[in-house]
Specification:
alpha+beta, Uncharacterised_YgbA, binds zinc ion, Nitrous oxide-stimulated promoter family protein, two-stranded antiparallel sheet
Length: 115
Amino acid sequence: MTKEKFKIEIDTLKKFFELYCKNKHQNINSFTKNLVYKDGNFKIDLHLCTKCKEDIEYCFQRLLECPHEIKPRCRKCPNPCYEKSQWKKTAKIMKYSGVRLGFNSIKSKLKKMLK
Ligand SMILES: [Zn+2]
């Protein structure tokens, strides 16, 4: 995928995880994550609890290793890279936050990610 697409994907994950975590969990910490994709450097500030931090890092790792130049929707991927339990957890977070954010643009992004 392109660097632009990568940036959109990580921003979407951030938005969804942060909303879910804020409403569900306590002991939220701030931290900064540096990701290198292709020759791009992406710095992302996150506000999540320890557990969600682990989960989002798993998602980032899957994205970094996504072999598709044109990323398919994860649900339609011929070689899904998420472990099943991790995928279920992520889908739950995306669904939860998607409903609450409720913007059309986010809905379409969510559909793209989950289909
Ligand atoms: Zn959390």
